[in-house]
Fold:
Amino acid sequence: MRLQLLAGASLASLASLAFAGAVQAQEANAAPVTALEEIIVTGEPAMRNRTDDVVPTLSYDLDYFQRFEPLTAGDALKRVPSVAFLSDVLESDGVRLRGLDSGYTQILINGERVPGAGVDRSFFVDRIPAELIERVEVVRSSSANRSGDAVAGAINIVLRDALSLDGGYVRLGALNWKDSEYGSWGGTYGAVWGGQAGPGRLLLGANIQDRRNPKQKYSQRFDEPNGTLDNTEVQSDVRDGTDYSFNGSYDVDVAGGRLNLSGVFVRTDRYQDEDSIEYVNGVETDANISTVNDNDVDIQTDNLSLNLRYVREMLGGETKFKLGYASIKDEQYEFEGESEYLRSEGTGRPIIPFPDEDRYTLDSTSTDITDEETSLALEHKRDLSNGLTLEFGVQGVKKDRDSNIADTTRIRFNVPNAPAARPAVPAFGPFIAGPGGLSTIEETRIDPYVMLSGENGPAKWEAGLRYETTDTTINANTNQSGDPVIFQQTENDYAFLLPSASLRIKLNDTDRLTFSAARTVRRPNFDRLSPALLEEEVGDSDFVGNPNLQPESAWGADVGFERRLGRRGVVGVNAFYRDITDLIEDVNTGDEGSGGDGTFIYSVDNVGDGQVWGLEFDLSTPLDFIGMETTGVFLNYSWLDSAVDDFMGERRFNSQSEYVFNAGFTHDISTWGAAFGATYRKQGDALSRVVSEEVKTSYGADLEVFIEKKVAENIVIRLTGSNLLDSSKDEVFDKFNTEAEQIDRDYDEYELETESAGPWYQIVARMAF
Structure:
C-alpha cells in the first residue's frame, strides 16, 4: 500500500510537468551532450566500447547499429555476441541470451526491469523502436544492486535522455517488402529534439514506422519418419502493422540535487493473416483439397513507463531515490474459419469435393492481459577509507497481472445445413473464459542489498549480497464449465540470498582479465502456477499447474580476457558456466486423464539439475594497423552447450542454439562523403523435447548491406537491404499421443515444415537541425 501511495504522488508530479519522457535518465554524471554530426553520419567505423565496469559488460553505442537502420531493438541485438532468437523469419522478439529460453534473460530499460506480456515474464525487445536507443549493454554476470533474475545474463537498453542530445533531427524513410510483383510499401517517420528548457534540459521524440512480415510456409506430414505421406499444407502468413512511440526526458537541478522525470509510450498495432490449404496424400490439386483455413489475429499492445529519479549529495555520500511505474496491455482478437472437404469418405455418404463444402467451423478467442509494476528504491553510496566504496539500499516492486482469455461458442455447419455464403463479420456469441482463462497474480518483492567495491593497483573489484523476498497470491478460474466462474486462491512465498563478486585485473596497457561469480534465480512461468485443469493439453493427456513451484536457482561463473587493438579496437574471449538447481520440468502425476485409459494428468515440479556452459569470442576493430583506418570489421562467435535429464534421458536445455555467429564490415569513403558495409549472421540448430512433442529448428543465414551518402552538411541518405539470402526456418516435429508412445517411438505424426521470406529494402534520409 505504501508503494502505491508513493507511486501515485510521483505520477501526479509527472503529469504536472505535462510531458512524456524516455523510460529513465542516466545518472547525473552522464556522458556529454552528443553532437548532431555523430547522429547523422559518423565518418569513421563504429566499434564496441571498452567499458570501465568491473562486471563483464559489452557496450555498443547507437552508431554501431545505426548504419544498418534497424527498426527495433531486436534488429539491433542480432549483431551482438550470444544473442539468439527462436522467432519467425524477419522477427526478433524474445532474446535468448546464450541460447537459453527468454525467461533466463533479464531485459532492462536504463537499468530497470520492465514487465512483458509473455507467460515466461520475458519482454519482447521488438516493442522498442531502435530510434530510442542510445546504447545497448550485454551484462554477463550479476551485481547486488540489480535484480537477480538473470541466469543467462542481462540486456540493458539505454535510451536517449535530456543530457544526451543538443539539437534535433528528422528521419524520413520508405520500406519495401518483396511479397508481390511490385512489393508492399511502408513508411518510417521520426523526429527528436533536445535542448535547454527553462532551468533544465528537455528531450522530446516521436516515431512512427510500418512493420510487415510476409512469409510462406510449407508442411509435409507423414505417419512416421520415412513413412507414408498423409497430407501437405501450403500456407501464407502475413503480419502487417504500425508501431507508434513517444518519448521524452526532463533533467533539472532541484534543492541541491538532480531530478529527472521521464517516460515512454509505445503502441504496437498489428494484424496477422494466415491462410492455408491442406491436401490429402500430398497431391496438390483442387480434387484433393481436404481443408481451407483462414486464421486472423488483431493485436494491439501498449507499453507505458514513467519514472522519477532524484540524486543528491547527503549523509556523507550520494543518495538516490527512484520511483517508477511500468505497464503492458496486450489485447488480441483471433478468429479461425475452416472449410472441410472429402470428410464423408468411408461414412457411406457421398464424398463432397472442393469447391462444394462438407463442413464449416468457426472459432474465436479474445485475449486481454494487463501487467502493471510499481517500483520504489532508496539507495546510498559513500566513499570509505583506503579507496573503498560502500553502497546499500532497498528496492521494492509491486506487480499486478490480470489475464482474461475467453472463447466464444463454436459455430459449425454440416452439409446439407451449411449456408451458401459466410458472413463477412461472424455473429459470435458471448465470450466465456474456460479453466485458467481468468486469473490474477499479485507479487510483492522487497529486496535489500549491500555492496562493497574498491581498487588496489591493477585490481578493481566489487562484492555484495542481495536478499530477494517474494510474496505471491494467485487467483484462477478452475471451473471446467466456464460459467459460473469459480476462483481458487493460493499463496506462495519464498526468499533467496544472492551473493555476487567480480574482479578485473589490468595486466598492462592493453590487456586485462575479468572474473565473476554470482547466484541468480528464475521465477516460474505464470501459466505453470495456475491450478486450473486443462484437458488434452499434452497430447491426449491433461495438464494442471502447480502454484507451489519454487524458482530455479543457479550458481555461475564467467572468466574473460580482453585486449585493446590500436586506438579503438578490442578483442575478447569469455568462458561461462551455470549450475542450475530445482529445474522446473513436466511430471506425470499418475492420475488418469479425461481421455481415459492410457492418458494421464501432467503437472510441473522442481526436479533435477542442469548445467550450461560455453565460450564467447568477439572482435571489433578498425583496420588502421594495416593502413585502412576508414575500414572497420567485427566478428563474434559463441559456442553454446548444456545438459539436463528428463523422462527420456539426457538432452540440452530446450531450444538452445548450438552456436551464434556474426561477421561484418563498414568502409568510409571520406572524399565522397559516402560509406558502405555488410553484416552476415548464422545461428545453429536448436532441439526441444517435451512430453508428446520433439522439435528440431534450423535457420538459414542472414545477410544485410547498407550504402550511405552525405548529400549536404546536415543530411545523409541510407539505402539498406535485409534478408538478402532469403533466410528460411526449417522445423522437424516428432509428435506422439502419450509419454509411453513417445518412449516406444510409436508416432502420431511426423512433420517437416519450412518457413521462408524474401528480402526487404529501406531508404532513409536523416536531417539535423
